[in-house]
């Protein structure tokens, strides 16, 4: 029950300190997003990647600062319950005209849950549910950009509208040949849209800010005609003689690939992120709001939103958590809820001797993946502390497994005294569920096996391009996504390519060496022998044939060493979130070749 009167003046001061903490966070977050454009134009790829990495840490730093301030100035930990209720009410008041109220609510939760006992973790004190609506917020300051712009082409102005739209982003670098690229974009979309009658509402809507990631800037929008909406994205890259539009992506599936949870977060300058999320949801209605917030670099909002979705799903489902299908991990205990498309991964308390690692090292590897470019090949993870699940929803086999392998992280009790026994896990990673590749290969048709093996090699090559050595490349450590992409998910042995020594197997010194079945050469901690991968991976002849036809180079140390040298020389590889055959340059070259052979 809320207080009828706001009687404690400290409550307002605390609310104000909290909003100041959030506003400082969003200012710094926006600043680095704004600077992404200059980094793109200067082709400062290392700077862009560094900024992407550093931005992830901003939030926790600001939360720590705000919690310290509250303790220092208000001895916040010792305040009574009714004061905290008043803090929340004042805070809601301060959000009335705020442009990022949902993020500010999450920030409030992050700070206060650091200070308050968990008996306060309900809606009277923190924002278990949002309190302030995010619909129809627009930026209105001087020079503010609307969320999106609209263009109304006629048949005759279809191309010039696209041209105008690209020019309105005000990139200062010249394009190599904008007319050529616009012809390609407009021509491709004409084919996609087919013969149609322009309705009264015929228009192109485009988000006002560019989306920056790695070496690309993306224009994101949709073409509307009558009741039909066609999403699109234009990747802008540096070509040989200026900027180029590399292709046009034009379906929901294309955009899902672009915004995949297996890729790094975008940098986008936006005053009203909820409006961006709303627009993006109109392009990808099946994508959870949580993943869109994360893709925009607002990963704590993504985490909060995901947790709300999980609680909601638990209330509306009846199935039980179980050990995840597949080969059990040696360092991770993995479980899932069949009706929910995610897995829960807990670090075991102990591992077999061949796993020479520690909990801290494993956490370090997961953090590395979070902050690294995941190039569409490593699933993003959400990390949670003290997650409580109803005991009644766990099968006994899973409980026994948790008790055996993770006793230090597990509490099973009625901690709230409400008669509900809970399973409380003090540290868990949550990530998208995929079909483990070993299971997929067992069930697949020969054509699917071939495609998956090619994809598997491509996945490893994309990881290599991004300076990641997966460590353990067994099939079971990769998963197949909804759209058939192969993604890596076992991070405990990954290393930077640049930290590894790729070696040839030395010739045996004598016959005894050769026959012994033991390793006769010395192996350093970072030594990798690609020639030895084959026996582990290629027992099945059908798999072996496809693998050797497409990816025999992965068994050659020179392949790995070459990439290591390239990365050390500072070269950042392109990894496209679409098939290379979609690139206009590739299509033009193919067309020219076809014309030449006629
Ligand atoms: N995202 C996922 N989707 C579906 N299944 C998964 C996922 N992540 C893990 N699994 C399942 O859990 C198992 C163990 O996971 P993981 O490979 O991460 O653990 P690990 O202990 O690091 O493994 P290893 O023993 O190879 O080091 C996998 O083999 C797979 O069957």
UniProtKB/TrEMBL annotation:
Keywords: ATP-binding, Cytoplasm, Glyoxylate bypass, Hydrolase, Kinase, Nucleotide-binding, Protein phosphatase, Serine/threonine-protein kinase, Transferase, Tricarboxylic acid cycle. InterPro entries: AceK_kinase, AceK_regulatory, Isocitrate_DH_AceK. It is found in: Cytoplasm. ATP binds at residues 324-330, 345. Its main location: cytoplasm. Residues 15-317 form the Isocitrate dehydrogenase kinase/phosphatase (AceK) regulatory domain. It catalyses: L-seryl-[isocitrate dehydrogenase] + ATP = O-phospho-L-seryl-[isocitrate dehydrogenase] + ADP + H(+). Bifunctional enzyme which can phosphorylate or dephosphorylate isocitrate dehydrogenase (IDH) on a specific serine residue. This is a regulatory mechanism which enables bacteria to bypass the Krebs cycle via the glyoxylate shunt in response to the source of carbon. When bacteria are grown on glucose, IDH is fully active and unphosphorylated, but when grown on acetate or ethanol, the activity of IDH declines drastically concomitant with its phosphorylation. This is Isocitrate dehydrogenase kinase/phosphatase. It comes from Rubrivivax albus. Signal peptide: none annotated. Transmembrane segments: none annotated. One of its GO terms (molecular function) is ATP binding. Belongs to the AceK family. It comes from the Bacteria. Its EC number is 2.7.11.5, 3.1.3.-. The active site is at 380. Residues 319-579 form the Isocitrate dehydrogenase kinase/phosphatase (AceK) kinase domain. One of its GO terms (cellular component) is cytoplasm. One of its GO terms (biological process) is glyoxylate cycle.
């Amino acid at each position: 029950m809320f207080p009828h009167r706001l009687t404690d003046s400290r409550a307002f001061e605390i609310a104000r300190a909290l909003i100041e903490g959030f506003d400082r966070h969003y200012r710094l977050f926006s600043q680095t997003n704004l600077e992404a454009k200059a980094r793109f134009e200067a082709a400062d790829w290392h700077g862009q990647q560094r900024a992407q990495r550093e931005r992830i840490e901003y939030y926790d730093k600001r939360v720590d600062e705000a919690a310290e301030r509250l303790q220092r100035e208000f001895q916040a930990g010792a305040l009574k319950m009714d004061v905290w209720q008043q803090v929340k009410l004042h805070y809601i008041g301060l959000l009335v005209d705020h442009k990022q109220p949902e993020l500010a609510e999450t920030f409030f939760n992050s700070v206060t849950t650091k200070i308050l006992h968990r008996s306060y973790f309900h809606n009277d004190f923190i924002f278990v549910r949002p309190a302030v609506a995010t619909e129809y917020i627009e930026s209105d300051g001087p020079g503010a950009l609307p969320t999106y712009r609209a263009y109304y082409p006629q048949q005759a102005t279809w191309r010039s509208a696209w041209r105008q739209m690209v020019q309105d982003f005000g990139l200062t670098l010249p394009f190599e040949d904008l007319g050529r690229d616009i012809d390609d974009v407009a021509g491709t979309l004409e084919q996609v849209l087919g013969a149609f009658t322009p309705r009264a509402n015929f228009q192109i809507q485009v988000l006002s800010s560019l989306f920056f990631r790695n070496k690309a800037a993306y224009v994101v929008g949709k073409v509307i005609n009558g009741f039909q909406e066609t999403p699109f994205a234009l990747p802008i890259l540096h070509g040989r003689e200026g900027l180029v539009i590399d292709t046009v992506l034009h379906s929901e599936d294309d955009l899902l690939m672009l915004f995949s949870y297996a890729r790094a977060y975008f940098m986008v300058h936006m005053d009203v992120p909820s409006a961006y999320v709303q627009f993006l949801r109109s392009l990808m209605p099946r994508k959870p709001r949580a993943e869109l917030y994360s893709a925009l670099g607002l990963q704590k909002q993504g985490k909060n939103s995901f947790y709300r979705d999980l609680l909601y799903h638990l209330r509306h489902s009846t199935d039980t958590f179980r050990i995840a299908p597949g080969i059990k991990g040696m360092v991770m205990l993995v479980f899932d809820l069949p009706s929910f498309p995610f897995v829960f991964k807990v670090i075991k308390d102990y591992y077999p001797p061949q796993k020479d690692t520690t909990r801290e090292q494993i956490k370090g590897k997961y953090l590395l993946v979070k902050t690294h470019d995941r190039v569409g090949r490593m699933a993003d993870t959400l990390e949670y502390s003290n997650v409580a699940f109803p005991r009644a929803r766990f099968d006994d086999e899973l409980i026994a497994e948790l008790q055996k392998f993770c006793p230090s992280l597990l509490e099973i009790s009625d901690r709230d005294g409400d008669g509900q026994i809970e399973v409380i896990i003090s540290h868990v990673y949550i990530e998208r569920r995929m079909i483990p590749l070993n299971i997929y290969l067992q069930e697949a048709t020969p054509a699917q096996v071939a495609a998956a093996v090619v994809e598997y090699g491509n996945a490893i090559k994309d990881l290599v391009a991004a300076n990641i050595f997966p460590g353990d490349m067994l099939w079971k450590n990769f998963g197949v996504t909804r759209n058939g992409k192969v993604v890596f998910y076992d991070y405990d042995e990954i290393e930077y390519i640049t930290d590894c020594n790729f070696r040839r197997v030395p010739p045996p010194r004598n016959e005894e060496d050769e026959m012994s079945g033991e390793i006769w050469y010395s192996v350093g901690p970072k030594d990798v022998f690609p020639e030895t991968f084959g026996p582990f991976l290629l027992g099945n002849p059908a798999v072996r044939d496809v693998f050797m036809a497409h990816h025999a180079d992965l068994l050659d140390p020179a392949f790995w060493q070459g990439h290591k040298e390239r990365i050390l020389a500072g070269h950042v590889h392109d990894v496209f979130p679409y098939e290379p055959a979609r690139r206009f340059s590739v299509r033009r070259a193919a067309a020219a070749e076809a014309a030449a052979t006629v």
